[in-house]
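Good day; I would like, with your permission, to put a structural problem before you. What I wish to show you is a protein chain and, alongside it, a tokenised description of its three-dimensional fold. Here, with my thanks, is the record as I have it:
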Amino acid sequence: MTTTLGPDAARRIALAAQGFADARPAGEITRRHLRRVVDRVRLIQLDSVNVAVRAHYMPLFSRLGPYPAALVDDAAWRHRARRPRLLAEYWAHEASLLPVEDWPLFRWRMRRYERRLGERYESLLKGAPGLFDDVLAAVKDLGPIGAGPLEAELGIAGGRARGGWWNRSSVKHACEYLFAVGELTTGARRGFQRLYDLPERVLPPEVHSAPEMSTEDAIRELTLRAAAAHGIGTEPDLRDYFRVKPPEWSKRAVAELVEDGRLEEVSVRGWTRPAYRHVDARQPRRVTGRALLCPFDPLIWERARTERIFGFHYRIEIYVPEPKRVYGYYVFPFLLDGELVARVDLKTDRQAGVLRVRGAFAEPAVDAARVAAELAAELGVMAEWLELDKVVADDRGSLAPPLRKVLHRPNRTAP
């Protein structure tokens, strides 16, 4: 018989899988804590938007609280014998950081890029024969290096591919293609600029030289990792985590994992599709605590799943014209005791030393006074983590009045 779960149980399973059922560490946060988070979520999405904080730093803060951002930088972009690199970059969900040992699981995707992008780059190769070989040779001599210095090195600075892919320079085109097919990777970053290097100089030898898995085996492993990161989810949920295409691959992997006893098919009341629970997924009796979630947090990045689990309709409005935005440019949902209870549009004003709340909105039927107090406390922790002096809230949104009241309270202390 198929097990039937209530929606509250499914939500607690999902939260536990993502690390939100555990208390934040009380002492110093170390590389061990980072590794534990990464082992759970399996990837951290990268994004260029920096209006509040870069996306790859925030999921760790949401789960661990204030931590040294250098932990991520060291894990992703530096390698020393005593502190080896833990993370590598590749197209996983989108551009993502993932455990170095998972890099070989994406070789099937690299082969697909070779086939799919080859035609797109044919005109580039005709216009600049030997460019890819020249880029690889220059990176071998000079890497880690950015696309701009590579252009200068190759003597084609300012040369642009007319109407090319995203209208980038020919060298940038070549670098991105070689990154996609696995012949280049990110050796380091300067700011948010990717510095390219050869994979054999970035990845551990046992990872770079690992035997290539069949596509079927790799998809099955990625589906199992997605199921562990979700705790519970539908087949499309699991497929989306690592953007597996075509859908038939994911469906076959899910069926095989059920047959192997690693996933259990269950029914969740209110869900229109069958659900699949990882056999090791925890189901805590309750979830407490609070967290601000950036738009690219893996708990919420699949918006249909977010609405199904939390009853929370969420869309990122970066590309919506300002007069048409409902909540704001870069909105953080607020998680409190296992529920998404509010959302805030945040901006970091470093010149003024202020974390600005440009809009604050409560969900229906929540205790606005309590939510405002908890949100004010968490915003204060975030501001301190970002080395800002204070939090300032505008008057836009249903939660703005009680939030401003708490923030303006003399000698306020965090609850």
Q: What stands out?
A: The chain has 17 helices and 14 strands. Residues 157-167 have pLDDT under 50 and may be disordered. The two ends are 46 Å apart (CA to CA). The longest strand covers residues 339-349.
